[in-house]
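Its record is quoted verbatim for completeness.
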Amino acid sequence: MKALIKIAITGVVLALLFSAVDVHALLAHISDVPWYAIAYAALCYFIATYLGTLRWTMLLKAEGVILPFRHLLFYNLSYNFYSVVLPGGKVAAEAIRVYQIVRDTGDANVRGKVIFPTLLDRSMVVAVSALVAVLFFITAPVAVAFPWWLPYAGVLAVGAIMLTVFLPVERLFSFGNGLAIPKRSTLQSLRDALTKYRSRPALLLSTSVITLLMNVVIASGIYGITLSLHLPASYLLVFEVFSVGMVTAFLPLTIAGIGVREGVFAYVLTAASGAPIEATLSVSLLALLALLSVVVVGGVVEFYRHFIRHEKI
């Protein structure tokens, strides 16, 4: 039922998007984009997946979990696939990433060491994108309906959340103390993991930089599509608007954020650059097409590994 609801919402959102634009103009813009611009955008998504795997590898090593990079790359590709096809979306896909490691290693004890770095791996994407997004709303000349102080509050909120990884703020609230919980409870495991990562600030900083670099690479692919349409938008603007779209994609409203991300990207880019909404929506839809190419490859890899080769570590 949940899957059907998400499919229905995704269909409604896409229908609203197409009803708000001149479809003939939209198709004309799409047809003006050369195939190699779309291929470059798809390549950028694959490069970003590679960088994301590098970040995940570094976080797992901090927990003493050392796995072949090739396998982790396959898990990330399958994550892209499962985030679209599973009713639970990105949350279910994260659970699949953890399950795949436990299944392929045959070691049930590794699960506790994998969960936190896997969640931290995905949380970095949200945090970095959110920080860029709120900075955009502070600096960009876009008319907005919220109070002037809200973006600044957003920067402080995101910054505070990111600092919780570096600083033991839970001690201020006696995190987990006095509770009748087992020694190795979820709360205690979280405290232990946070302590371990806080002792390695260089690791946290380097993985945050990799996260930012991932967004830079993906935005360069989208910018290539923008250039092919001769839109009045700089690379920096495309990068910032892409970050805004990334944040909205994590809202569990539609399948993998499809429709919401594209609509927000098109609307904000039009508001910031003055480009026609049909042109900016065409950029967003072609970027989605590039992303779906990674999803398809992830599905093929997953099918090959577990239904043909039955591959394990």
